[in-house]
Each structure stands twice: as structure tokens, then as C-alpha cells.
Amino acid sequence: MSAAVRLAVLATLVLLGGCDREQRDPRPNARRDTDEQAVAVTTLEPGGERPSPSDPKAQHFADNAYQMSEGKRLYSWFNCSGCHANGGGGMGPALIDDKWIYGASVESVHATIRDGRPNGMPSFGNKVPDDQIWQLAAYVRSMAGLASSAASPGRNDDMMARPSENRPGAASEGKSP
Amino acid sequence: MTAADLAPEPDGLRDTGLDEATLRRWLARTWARPRGLVGSLSTVDHKVVARRYLVTAFVFLALGGLNAILMRLQLSGPERSLIGPDLYNQLFTMHGVTMMFLFAVPVMQASGIFLVPLMVGTRNIAFPRLNAFSYWIYLSGGIFAWTSFVLNMGPDVGWFAYVPLSGPEFAPGKRADVWAQMITYTEVSSLAVAVATIVTIFKQRAPGMSLDRIPLFVWAMLVTSFVIIFAMPAVMIASTFLILDRLVGTHIFNPAEGGDALLFQHLFWFFGHPEVYIIFLPATGMVSSIIAAFARRPVFGYLALVLSLIAVGFLSFGLWVHHMFATGLPKLGASFFTASSMLIAIPNGLQIFCWLATLWGGRPTIRTPLLFVLGFFFIFVAGCLTGVMLASVPLDLQAHDTYFVVAHFHYVLIGGAVFPLLGAAYFWFPKITGRMMSERLGRWHFWLAFVGFNAAFFPMHIVGLWGMPRRVYTYPVQMGWGPINLFISLGALVLFASFVLFAVNLVRSCSRGEPAGDNPWDAGTLEWATSSPPPSYNFSRIPVVTHAEPLWAERESMPVAEGLRVGVRELLVSTVAEARPDLRETSAGTSIWPLLAALAVGGTFLGSIFTPWAVVWGALPITVALIGWFWPKGEPEDES
Amino acid sequence: MRPSRGFAAALFLPAFLAGCSGWQSALDPKGPAAEELARLIWFFTLLSVAVWLLVMIVLSIAILRRRRQHSDPLAVDARGDRIARRVVSVAVGATGVVLVGLTLLSFFANRTLAGIGTQAAVTIRVTGHQWWWEVRYEDERPARVVTSANEIHVPAGEPVELVLSSTDVIHSLWVPNLAGKLDLIPGRENVLRFVAAEPGTYRGQCAEFCGAQHAHMALVVVAEPRPAFEAWLDRELRPAHPPPPGVPMAGQDVFLGRGCMMCHRIRGTLAGGTTGPDLTHLASRSTLGAGTLEMSRGNLAAWIADPHGIKPGVHMPVMGLGGDELNQVVAYLERLE
After folding, report:
1. The domain that contains C276 carries what CATH number?
2. How far is residue B117's CA from residue B131's CA, in Å, rounded to a whole number?
3. Dihedral, CA atoms, B12, B17, B21, B25, nearest 10 degrees?
4. Cβ contacts (< 8 Å) between A156 and chain C: which residues?
5. Which of B38, B152, B157 to probe the A interface (max A CBs under 10 A)?
6. Is C313 part of a structural domain of the chain?
7. Which of A74, A136, A156 should be substituted to probe chain C, the one whose Cβ sees the most C Cβ atoms within 10 Å?
8. Please, which residues 538-577 of chain B have a Cβ atom closer than 8 Å to chain C?
9. Same-domain check for residues C212 and C272
10. Of the residues C189, C224, C259, which one is the last residue of a structural domain?
11. What pLDDT shows up at residue A37?
């Protein structure tokens, strides 16, 4: 009996991940701005890596299905494709690969969109509310396959330019999970 | 029971010449229900499986009812903020899905699983292990859906989940995938029971029970099972296509890449319309049984009723576009569906008239089951008539997707299926448990249900025509719909209270009900020929049938057939039309494999909403389970 | 003892009659299409009530009548059964005749409806979005094409044609006072034709579940006499007035500087976003948020400050404007008539 109980507890814990992933909060934390937390461009330093600080807001957005699907909508509404195409890059770097110039964590991507970067990434901090930038950041990570496939958005009801975000990424294409 | 007893016959002791007591001892041992936890999980006795189905279905009824109460509390006043839109959308979707897939169809099939083998005079349902498997799959599907709901993953796209709203772009997360896979569980379960029911009815009838002597309830289950077999594939296709679009990236419903959003509606409603007849037809069988018993005469117009059942079964496949009149399909085509939707009222009307004629010609005793049948007439006929209204294309363009439609389908489903079901519960409870339900509580239950139902659902016709659409979590103050919605919510509470009373009656009667004899209602069909509750082997000897109401025709003693073996689970197979005895067939015994197969299949379905690889890896345990299930047992072939 | 029908009627009749003159009521027709439909509804209702009463009367008599007792349930009355067979056959035949009649009636009503609104005087393209309506007044002259949102102006007494489509999920446009509903399906175009017989304001609502805020996706149809309609259209075609200096001009700066123009368009300014509703003549509309709020200064401020407090899940984000900025932008927007 105790083996069955243990199995049930394990299954429950696995499934409980569903709670947070499926939460749909339209305004998770509608403060005016994120605290101006320093986001490191790189975590390498002499003597080893230092841990990258994490923003408490980030957990509402990363790996949340609703927030990522909102980010996908905003990616198209705000014409990110203008420079990044559908993730393959053009004027701007590709977003579906594993090369991240300024860091791949959701805080780094958020800082990139909010503050802009050298070589042409505009700053959207004044134009797009902070929560929406978090949504975009969460979505951009899913484009590169960094978000859980259970939460990543599926394909758009549009003409397709690339495989959808919930498919396994290029790195594991063709291999069994 | 020594080896010497077995010696005389070449293939085992037969029941010919055995006295009743010895016969019952042998049969009780051969058909024994296994003990212990593993035993109870391996039983294939149709009555045990049916009881489990019934209890599970009523639990889902209660859960679906709670959903409805929460919805009605939110809608009891304008712009209330009790429940937000996200939870409300999950609530009404879960309400629809629970009531339609987890309560209505399973409970009707379960009544068939319990009653059909008894009514046709056989020992067990055909394919008993498949029957057991179907219960475990149904239970898995229900647990899957409700656990997802508890985990904030419950579907929120409506019980018919139109694309593109349920598609990959507009339904983020796993909620719509849960909807699609829950459908797969319940449809596999329904198909399995349908197949078993058809084979039981065609091949396992008691000798002499020719096609024109089959009880009307059994005819209803036969037609229902055929409708299930032809309708369920359409919804499985629809839900599979949806999952493919969402998980794998196909474009079946994507207009931009050549797909079509309306295709989903066609596929779904091709199933969806026959689905409501799947729910309604068994209820007509229940009504026929109850009216015959309480009017103290065989039902008038047996042939007409059978032909009506078959006609409804066929015609139900030609109506589906009436759910799509507002989608802009060509008007001439839509008018065809107006004609066919009105046409189905003819066989339905014929049924009603035959029942009225039965009541007119008989001498009805008013007991709770008949009260519920009278309630059925009151409510279902009204629902039928609003259905005729909705069948008209132009009228439907005002009423579609408003509370008028909500009123209509609750009238036909609650009036046409739940009321007969409740009457059937009071009617057959003595047979299932051996005790009578409380008549006093039953009358209170009926009146509470009747008044509560009409108070809750009649005003919906009005508020729908006043402009209130369906599936809204709130409405503005200035529309003036507040008072009538408050009235509706109060009615819903009364209806809910009636179900609580029913549950109280059920539980009390299980332990304190008056003991019922074999045939407390003095009804005429074969299930009343055995004890209440029936022994595991149903009948000690297979009865021989000479009339459509065997117990009324043979009041002194029932002729029986002899010659079945008693040491092995054996039943009699007869010909399809005349029911002449044909073969002796072994019936599968206790087995754990149905449960294991259900776990393997259920696990595969669950995994496949997360990754398509689950189908590949899940095939392995399924193969193992099926090999175990079908492993040959080395028994000699039966001879005629 | 069943509840008396008179009691039930007395309970429901006042409530029932109250809706007869109603906003958004199918029983209060204001156009030929809705009138035809209302006639059909009444006819079917009365016929249904009559049939239902007949069946209930027969049922009551069947239950209550006195009859001879037979102890043997199989001893049936052959004569009684013969009469019953004839009665049931007649009843089924009558049912068939009535249903054929209703089918024909419905078919002819369909033809009548198809004849309403042909030779449209005005063509309007309505595109459904998640939880608002994009309205475009078509014209052969491109300079006279104008886009607005959530409010449809039509000339009273003239046939109007609405071309319906959707950019996302299936919606359904339903203005019960004027016509039956028709779905807005992505990838398809449906055409709804109607005539608004009298001038007036008519409310409609989305009638196909379309997601979180389906409940708050309403629209208003304003029917005006032709000269008034032309005057309104001329005003609508003009770009937005430049704001007077002071608070409204500061409001325009907030609008353009703080991100509103990423989604909204105000013709005559730099704001050219097309993903949200066109706001060029926002203040001339009677509602806000697709029929959710009445247009007023306070509601405008509340909506901009926190749209999710009113319509949770809507695509408009919380902009995070400070108190002064909010005042300024509201002062600017309420001048956009």
C-alpha cells in the first residue's frame, strides 16, 4: 500500500506543475516599472561564474502558457519580425538559435527589450508596458526552445514560417526524448 | 462435488436432471465473484460493472451539478464578481463535458449493461472483459478531466470547443488538449459497451425470444448502440485533428494554409446530434418499461414503437447542420436540415401517442416511477416543441446561442432523459439491491425536482428572446435581466436540493429500505424472474420465452431450457431472428487484464497530450496487456 | 396534483410582457427582417402551446379516468385498441401535416428574409477581433473609406449590407431588434443584410463564445435619417481636431510618447497603430470597451487606468500612467469627437 501511496504522491507533484503553468493572470504585477535591478550581460568572471540575479517578477512569466501566448501575439503586433523575421533573423540576430549575445535568461531578454542594446536594438521601455515586455521575453525564450514544451505556444492560425515553439528544437530534432 | 460427479459426462456435468439446490451450489461456485482487492478489480460480472458505472456516473452528476450551482450564483445578479471570467469559462465547459460525456451517456449505457443480459435471459453480457475494460477507461477519463480542472488545467472552450478558439493560437496551455483526450477516453469506453450490447442482444437471447418479443428497453439499447458505433468516430476524428493541430502543427483547421474552421463544426455535430439521441433513446426504453408495469398492460403499438426507435436512429444522422444555421451556409442546404429536423418529430410523436394510448387503456397506479414518467411527458413534450421552433432556420437565427437554446436542450435532456432515469432508478433499485426506495421521500424528490426544474429553465426561454446570449459570465445592469436571472438561480437551487434528497433516499434505502421480493411491481419482463439482487449467474436455468411479457404469460411456472454445463462458465447462444438455441458458448471469467490494459491505454492517452512520443512508448505496455488478455487458455472447442 | 397552469401563467405573464419593448430584444422588432422573425416566433409559440396543452389534457384524462379493473394484464380490450390505433394514426398524420406546414412556412420566411436589403445603399465591413468590432465603411472612392470601432451608423429606412469576417476566432454579430445573427468566421466572408426601419439606437452583442470577454463584446447600431447619416459620415472622414494648447496638448504628447500609438490610430496625428480600435472620433461614440461602459470622462479614466479591472483579459494592457498623465490624456481623448 505504501508503494502505491508514494506513487500517487509523485504523480500529484508532477501534475501540480500544471497549476502555475496554466495560470492566466492578465496583470500579474502592474507596477509602473521593474525595480532597476542590475542584469548581468554575462555571468563569467575570474574565479568562476557568479549566479545571475533573478527578478521576482520573472516567475510569473517564464514557463507560463498564457503569458507566452500573449508574448507571441505582441511579437506580431509590435512587428519584431521587422528585424528578427520569424526568429531567423535578418537585420537583427536570429532568435531561434542558441547564440545569445546578452544572455538567455528571461531577465536578460527583458532588459534587452526594455533598454535596447548597441548595434540597433531599440529601447521599448517607454512604449511598451513592463508586463508586456516580460511576456515578450518569455515568448522569445520559447522560440529558442528554452521554455517547457508543455507551456510553449503552438502554431499560429496563419501562414507558417517556421515550426511551432512546442516542437522540440533543432538540437533534439529526430531524437527520442 | 467430487471427481465422481464429473466423470459421467465427457465434457463436464450438465444441469439436466440436477435438483435446484445442487444446481445453485454448482453455479454459485462456477460464477463466483472473486474476493479481495485484486478480486474486485478483476471481476467481469456485468452487474458489478454496471453498479460501478452507475455510482461513478452519479458522482459526476453531482460534480456537474455543483458546477452549475456556481455558475448560477455568479449569474444571479448583474455584474456580480463572485467568479471571474477564466474560472467561469472552465465551469461551464466542465459542466457540459461532465454532464454529456461523463454522466449522460455512461449512465444510459450502464442501465443497459445491468438490464439487457437479465432482460434477454442470459448469464452475462457478451465480451465481459471488454465490458470491464470500458469501465476502467471511463473512470480514467473522468478522473483525468476532473484532476485537470482542479489543477487549473480544465478545458475552458465550451463543451464543443470550436476552432479556432480551441486551436493552438487562441487556447494556450494544455486545457483544450485535456478536452480532446477526455473525449477519446469516453468514446473508446462507449464503443466497447455498444459492441458488447449489440452482440448480447443479437446472439444471447433466451430461446423463444424472437425479435418481436424483445422488451422495448432492449430494442432501445440496440438502436442506441448502433448509433454510437456510427457517430462516435466523427468526434474522435474531430478531437484527434484538434490535437494534431495543437501538438504536431498540422493545418487541418487553419484557413491561412488551406484548412477550414467550419470542418470542425461539421465533424463535431455529425456526432453531436446523434449524441443527444444516444442519451434519449434508452430513456424511451425506460419509459416503455415503467408505463407497461404501472398501466398494468403491455405497451400499445409495439411494432410502431420499434419502428420509431429505428427511424429516430437513422434520422438522427441527418440533422446536424441545424447546429450551424448561423454560420452562413447556403440557405437551400440549410432548409433541407429544417425539413429533416422537423421530420424526426414524427417518430418521436408516434412514441408519445403510443404511450398515451397505453396509459389510456390501462389502469395506472401512481407510484414514484410513474410520477417521473408523467414529469417526463410534461417537460419533454415542451422541449420537443421548442426543438421544432429551433429547427426553423429563420427562427433559429434569433434564438441560436441564446438562453432560449439553453432552455430547449435542458428541457429535452433533463425532461427526456434524466426524469425517466430517475423513475428508472426507483423502478429498478429493488432489483439491483433487493430493497425498495422510500416512496415518501420519492414523492418529495419528484415535486422538488419538477418545481425546481421548471422554475430554473422555463424563464430561460424568455430571457433568451430578450437578448441574453449563452456563455456569458455576467450581464449589464441596464438590460433588466437581473430579476429573472435571480428567479432562475433560485429554481436551480431547488433542483439541486432535489438531487440531494435523491442521494439521501438512495443511501438510506440501501441499508434501511423495505426488502423487495423478486417482482415487487408485478412487471412482465425477464429480469423480474430472478431474485433481487440477482445471483452472479442471473438465472439457475435459462428461461424459454413464449410471449413478449413472459412473466405475465406464464404466471404459474416458467418453462426453462436445460443442457448447459455447470462446472464451466457457459451460456446459450441463439439465432438472431427466431432465437432458436444454437450453440453453447463459454463466457470469459475473472481477469485482471482489462484493468491493466485500461491503465496502459489511459496512460498513453494522458502522455500524448504532452508529447507525440507517448503514443510510441505507450504501445509497449498496451501490447503486453493485450497479449496477457488474449493468451489462449487451452480449453477444448465447444460443440453444438 | 399538478400546479395549475393559470398560476404559472399569472406568475410569468407580467415578466414576459415587460420584455416586449426591450433593448436588444428579439420580441421588439425595429426592422422588416426582425418583424418577420418576431411574427414567426409568436406563431410557433402559440402553436406549440396549443399542441402542448392538447397532449397534457389527453395525459390528464388518461391518468384520471375511471375504468374497469382487469386482474390479468394480458387481457386487452380489442375494441379499445382498434380505436386507439385509429386515433394514433390520425394524430401522427396530423403531426406530419402540421410539420410540413411549418417547414413550408419556414422556407417562405427564409425567402422573404433573403429579399430584404438587396441593392444595399451602404456596405459596411465588420471584422471581429477578440472582444471588439472593427467597422469599415466601404465606398468606391478610396478617399471616402473610413474605419471606426464598436458602433455602426446606418441610414434609417435603407438597405444596409454588412460584410462579416474575423481576424481571430469565430464571433457572431447579433442585433436582435434588427435581424437574425450571422457568424464572423476567419477565412470566410458572410453577408448580413437588413433595413433599420426607424431611426434609433439598437444594442447588439457577440453571440458565439469567443474567449474570456465574450460577455463584454457588445456593439451599438445607430440608425439616422439619410441627411444626418451623411453629416455624420462627413465628420467621421475628417481627421482629428488638433488639441487646444494646455492640458489637452499635453495629453496628445502623452498619447504619442507613452506607447498608446503602438496599437491605436488617430488620423491627423502620428499615431497609426492598427491592432487596436481606431480612436480618431472616440468621443463621438456612445460606449467604451465594446459596449462595456458608457462614454464619459470618468469611465475613460477608469478604462485607461486599469482595463483589466473592468474587462479582465482584454488585450489592452495597464499602461502605468501617473495621475497627471492620465488626466492629460483623458482631456485629450474626450475632445476627439
Report:
1. 2.60.40.420
2. 12
3. 10
4. none
5. B152
6. yes
7. A74
8. 547, 549, 552-553
9. no
10. C224
11. 64
Same structural domain for residues C211 and C255? Answer: no
Q: Check whether residue C178 and residue C261 sit in a common domain.
A: no
- Closest in B148, B174, B249 to A163, CB measured: B249
Query: Are C120 and C214 in a shared domain?
Result: yes
The partner residue sitting opposite B462, judged by closest CB among C15, C172, C215, is C15
Cell triple for residue B613?
512520443
In this predicted model, what pLDDT tens digit does every residue of C163-217 receive, in sequence order? 999 999 999 999 999 999 999 999 999 999 999 999 999 999 999 999 999 999 9
Mean predicted confidence (pLDDT) in B619-634:
92
Tally of CB atoms within 10 A around C241: 13
Interchain contact A153–B (C-beta under 8 A): yes
CA atoms of A118 and B314, how far apart (whole Å): 70
pLDDT at A1: 47
| Residues C44 and C172 occupy one common structural domain | yes
pLDDT at B270: 97
pLDDT at B247 over 80: yes
In terms of CATH, what superfamily is A58-148?
A: Cytochrome c-like domain (1.10.760.10)
The candidate with the shortest Cα–Cα distance to C178, out of C209, C141, C223, is C223
Q: Is the pLDDT of residue B9 over 70?
A: no
pLDDT of residue B575: 95
Burial class (CB in 10 A: 0-12, 13-18, 19+), A35: exposed
Q: Is residue C261 part of a domain?
A: yes
Average pLDDT of every residue of chain A: 81
Least CA distance to B252: which residue of chain A?
A: A157
Same domain, C146 and C44: yes
What is the interface pTM, i.e. ipTM, of the complex?
Answer: 0.92
Q: Do A127 and C262 touch (CB under 8 A)?
A: yes
User: Hey, is the C-beta of B329 within 8 angstroms of any chain C C-beta?
Assistant: no
Say yes or no: C45 and C163 in one domain: yes
A13/B contact by beta carbon, under 8 A: no
Q: How far is A45 from chain B (nearest CA, A)?
A: 38
Residue ranges covered by each domain of chain A: 58-148
**pLDDT tens-digit readout, A19-66:** 788 888 888 775 545 556 667 777 777 887 777 777 878 888 988 999
Is residue C213 domain-shared with residue C253, that is, in the same domain?
A: no
Domain count within chain C: 2
Residues in chain A: 177
Average pLDDT over every residue of B339-354: 95
Residues in C touching B261 (Cβ below 8 Å): 170, 185-188
Range of the structural domain that residue C212 is part of: 22-64+84-224
C-alpha span between C38 and C30 (Å, rounded):
10
Considering C193, C224, C255, which residue would you say is the last residue of a domain?
Answer: C224
Q: Which residue of C has its CA nearest to B365?
A: C63
Segments in chain C below pLDDT 50: 1-20
Intra-chain end-to-end CA distance of chain A, in Å: 31
Q: What does C242-281 look like in DSSP terms, one character per residue?
A: PPPTTHHHHHHHHHHHTTGGGT-B-BTBS-B--SS-B-TT
